């Protein structure tokens, strides 16, 4: 990635950072972005989830004259951000469809009267004639501070989060050319970045691309072998009682998995687009406001979810792309504490995804892009190298081996399966490319089954040439030949295997094939969870009591617990055990307003420590 000259933060931005938001220093590109936008510049910002994107427009909003208008795609996201800003003493509000007419009217009066620092709106609300007319009047009076377009990847028609309303946001540059605009996203490959810039008329905007690295996330991928049981063991062993998200491909699987986890004693809730809106909203609210809820969901859930203490994201099905995977797993560990991205996958997932692409009604270009993105994801799950290094390379960023993913911690065993792979491909060819893996394996192993005799496959040249390998090894080999695209599955002919063009180099002796062997059966080491990050000798009871106090306070104020304080802040308090308000003020995440509102209560909890 190109190196950028560090930008010194101005005294005014540092003052706001410390006294409003409770932090003593900017991270990464934050200072440069803040100063650029505060000075009136346009910006396109790519920053990973948890990297502090919101501060990049919230602080300039407070530095500039007037109200900042923030375009946000989700009601839950704007409500949570407004609640957090109000807790910090910032005058913020939102306009969305969840409000009654009198509530919306009150917000609009505050906007016109200049009583708001930030106003959050959905794109469809922003584009109404009524609100645009109001903004026109404010613009004429010089009272619009900036426009921030959050989750800007929603403009991309290639992504699953596409929102057609975002395509109309180019009107902001036409209607308010003198007002700075900042577009922000956590996930965008180079192609999507260009699409964002083009569709939002940000071609001349300065681009800030932060590192995509999330070093606090441990990436783990396992072969499917009773995936429900594997998921349950993962949650119980590594994340008992902690918040997490489990992604499934279908609505039916979401509901079945959530119900099954509930039967096993896990506090799990389902979420998908086919549920009633009231039920979805209730489940999302519980996930955001309660500790330890596991949300089982389709990709309909998650965009913009601002919950910082999600300790794991699990996939029971293969995502559609690396971009989707990165975005979904990025919802874990937003507070910077240890988190995990866990996935159970199998070759059938790849077959199913390819079938969905082939049978979709999309144009040929769409299908081509979808296949390419799926192939890149298969490369990630099949790699024997560092997962994080592979992810970063996909986004154009170099990186060292992380030492924290499954492949780094327990390097996978590999086997030069070139000869066996050629035999497998020959077996498919010699049996007419009309049978599934089971029958071809019987032929290779020389099994005289009724089916082999009926088709006279005991007389083909490949009969018995694979007797040296057991059935499990052959099945693993066929699974990976399918996953890597050398064999295709013909669903119209009872899942018959057929050779693809990618098989030709291997059959001609021009390529090799390394097989990733399944790991040896052994009990996995327990991962370091949030609580285990507290050093030995520090009483966990204080951390627990602070979390209980936070939960009770959040209920009283009708806000999510993390709006009061993040786990990372409570952890730092538990470690430092400040005795005075001055000492408490030095804890990251405690600004002036929160110190005044909660300082005495926190010191009282600390003083109760025995």
TrEMBL record:
CDD domains linked to this entry: DEXHc_RecQ, SF2_C_RecQ
Protein name according to UniProt: DNA helicase RecQ
BP GO terms, sorted: DNA recombination; DNA repair; DNA replication; SOS response
EC number(s) on file: 5.6.2.4
Enzyme class per UniProt: isomerase
Any GO CC annotation of this UniProt entry: replisome
Helicase ATP-binding domain: residues covered: 34-206
Protein family per UniProt: Belongs to the helicase family. RecQ subfamily.
Gene: recQ
Keyword Metal-binding: yes
Keywords: ATP-binding, DNA damage, DNA recombination, DNA repair, DNA-binding, Helicase, Hydrolase, Isomerase, Metal-binding, Nucleotide-binding, Zinc
Domain Helicase C-terminal: 227-378
Membrane-spanning parts: none
NCBIfam families the record matches: recQ, recQ_fam
GO molecular function, one term: metal ion binding
Catalytic reaction list: Couples ATP hydrolysis with the unwinding of duplex DNA by translocating in the 3'-5' direction
Gene3D superfamilies (alphabetical): HRDC domain, P-loop containing nucleotide triphosphate hydrolases, Winged helix-like DNA-binding domain superfamily/Winged helix DNA-binding domain
Superkingdom of this protein's organism: Bacteria
Domain HRDC: 536-610
Alphabetized PROSITE patterns for the sequence: HELICASE_ATP_BIND_1, HELICASE_CTER, HRDC
Cofactor: Mg(2+); Zn(2+)
InterPro entries per record: DEAD/DEAH_box_helicase_dom (IPR011545), DNA_helicase_ATP-dep_RecQ (IPR004589), DNA_helicase_ATP-dep_RecQ_bac (IPR006293), Helicase_ATP-bd (IPR014001), Helicase_C-like (IPR001650), HRDC-like_sf (IPR010997), HRDC_dom (IPR002121), HRDC_dom_sf (IPR044876)
SUPFAM superfamilies given in the database record: HRDC-like, P-loop containing nucleoside triphosphate hydrolases
